[in-house]
Amino acid sequence: MKIIETKIPDVKLLEPQVFGDERGFFMETFRDEWFKQNVANRTFVQENHSKSVKGVLRGLHYQTENTQGKLVRVVQGAVFDVAVDMRESSPTFGQWVGEILSAENKRQLWVPEGFAHGFYVLTDTAEFTYKCTDYYNPTAEHSLIWNDPTVGIDWHLDGEPSLSAKDLAGKTLSQAVKFK
């Protein structure tokens, strides 16, 4: 597994070694010991899988209790995946990292605790999986508004995004609950 640094040092892009031929391919997507030694000393307790259609924007979500680190990847289609640093004490507070994750490039993004996370679907459909370091806690979940001009994310939009009511009600960075 190759580690690719991003402009926020705590967020890592992981690129697996893929072995393929005319029959298909094989790749290792996760190895606990390697991840703990090379990326973050974390244990994953939950894995989720979602499917969305083109133009759906999910996020930017985070939990202030049961904080979640996420290892995310796309198994079908492509998304533009984004992490925003919500840690007030961080030198990268309010900054964002965005990467295209696809079934084709097979890359994964490590989004540590203390970050808001979201993605925008670029293809007709996309299936997205993510491992989490803690369990989902809806009572502690928050949403950073996707289009906050202070954060200034370039989502690579193709028209107006499709958003849930929860995501439409997201808070701006100045209003949002933050981590210390």
TrEMBL record:
Q: Which domain of life is it from?
A: Bacteria
One Gene Ontology term, aspect cellular component: cytosol
The enzyme's main class, written as a single word, is: isomerase
Catalytically driven reaction(s):
dTDP-4-dehydro-6-deoxy-alpha-D-glucose = dTDP-4-dehydro-beta-L-rhamnose
Please list the residues that make up the active site. 61, 130
Keywords, ordered alphabetically: Isomerase
List, alphabetically, the CDD domains matched: cupin_RmlC
Report the GO molecular function annotations. Answer: dTDP-4-dehydrorhamnose 3,5-epimerase activity
The keyword Isomerase belongs to this UniProt entry's keyword annotation: yes
Q: Which residues form a coiled coil?
A: none
The UniProt subunit note reads as follows: Homodimer.
Instruction: Sum up the protein's function in the record's words.
Output: Catalyzes the epimerization of the C3' and C5'positions of dTDP-6-deoxy-D-xylo-4-hexulose, forming dTDP-6-deoxy-L-lyxo-4-hexulose.
Family per similarity comment = Belongs to the dTDP-4-dehydrorhamnose 3,5-epimerase family.
Can you name this protein?
dTDP-4-dehydrorhamnose 3,5-epimerase
Origin species, per record, is Conservatibacter flavescens
Gene name on record?
rfbC
